[in-house]
Amino acid sequence: MTACAIEGGTAGAATTADPGPEESGEPEEPVGAESAGAEGTTGLEGAAGAEGAAWPEGAAGAVPAGPAAPWAGAPRAPGTFTLTADGAYGARLTAAPGAPGEQRAWYPERWTLDGPEPYAVPLPLHQPEEPDAQVVPLADGRVLIRRRVADRQMFSLLYPTGPATGELALGAVECDGMTLLPPSPDGSSVYGLSAGDHSSLLWLVAGGAFGPELVAEIPGHCSGGVWLDRAGRMLALDRQLPGGGPVKAVAVDLERNGEVTPLLQIAPASDDRLLLADPDSGLLLIRSDAPGHDRLGWGVLGSCLPVRFPECLRPADVAVTPFAVQPGQMLMPESCAVALRIDGAAGSWVGIWRPQGRRLHQLAAPEGWSAGAGYWSRDGVLHLPYANAATPCAVARIEAPGDDGPLPETGGTDGDASGTEPSGAVTPPVVCKPVPLGQAPLHRTASPD
């Protein structure tokens, strides 16, 4: 592990907001319109609104800002829509629409997304699933399901067999609770995290030779789960050490018996969580309260440049959560398009942002969008799966808007109401050599804009 130099700089209001939720996949708490300083500059360790127009029928492309009205007849899925790392398959728990208050019979559903037309395959068994079951698709089209039975977690692989559903039991783990992590980039492995107050257990629940296998026991309470490479070796987790203290992202090496090394160290007492990582460019999306309250920031894996907290990523009275990064931008993290889920009083809609563009584009989501689900193609097209009364399985495609227009004048260092990031965000690269963490300076004078 190498460490990067840390630029000093203060940002944000004097008060500190409560930390966001433990699970990095959940939306962060909405922030208000209180003022904040210019983007913060802190350290990173390198280890590996308005109502929008209706979605046009059958159309793909950018749409006006604001949320789309939810589909009134859609059942509220108890879990999330999960995609494979390459976006070829998706899986969710679903149920047929029914009258309000009617009991739902939940069953897994697999979506095939890499063909000319998306389609869904129901995978029901002889009895309905419990609402707390969790499903994860694999690259071969099978779907892993986790069920809780008493004090055990049961795992099976589901697959279509003609008109029926086949099931291959994988085994069980005795524990009170477990969360399945995002599918491994290798397409065949799925890991589960069983978190305790003093230690957390990382299990390989699919892809092993003999059923679920214990991979590592990590001291402290862990959450999150972000892959740092395309081989499925380096996994980032958010960890709080036994006895309390700040939450810090750490890297777990699965080929070295779960060896744990620090990943984020922005400030000694700050909660620093990793939300997303792009292995191609090294772009990292981070949530931290180092600026004084929880903010979204970005950095580059292995870089000695500081983490930055753009003002445009904290619009008033909404929660903003990144869910997908454009792949294939080798050595160009600033040009990666990032998709964000925006949650407000009117519903959920989509944001698109690039570090170099320094502006947040807000777009309406398709009716029936599985909020927070989507993936990018390498050429900058965002794919959003959705289902509604007219279309049981569909994908909306949005081309990332350009950032060629002039930036509005901010009139200062804090940015203006338009949500534009301060112009001081883009600075010439600092040429410096990564140094070990123990030798990295905690503060230094920031370069002039």
Task: Explain how this protein is built.
With 449 residues, the protein is an all-beta fold. It contains no helices and 30 strands. The chain has strands at 2-3, 41-42, 45-46, 82-83, 89-94, 107-112, 119-122, 134-137, 143-149, 152-161, 164-174, 179-180, 190-195, 199-206, 213-219, 221-227, 234-240, 247-253, 259-262, 272-277, 283-288, 295-300, 307-308, 319-325, 338-344, 347-353, 360-363, 375-376, 381-386, 394-399. The strands form nine sheets. Strands 4-5-6-7 form a four-stranded antiparallel sheet, with no helix packed on it. It has a four-stranded antiparallel sheet with strand order 8-9-10-11, with no helix packed on it. A four-stranded antiparallel sheet has the order 12-13-14-15, with no helix packed on it. A hairpin with a 3-residue loop joins β13 (190-195) and β14 (199-206). The radius of gyration is 22 Å and the shape is globular. The relative contact order is 0.19.
> Strand fraction band?
35-45%
Radius of gyration: 22 Å
Give the count of helical stretches.
0
Mean pLDDT: 78
Give the overall shape, derived from the CA principal axes.
Answer: globular
- Backbone structural class: mainly beta
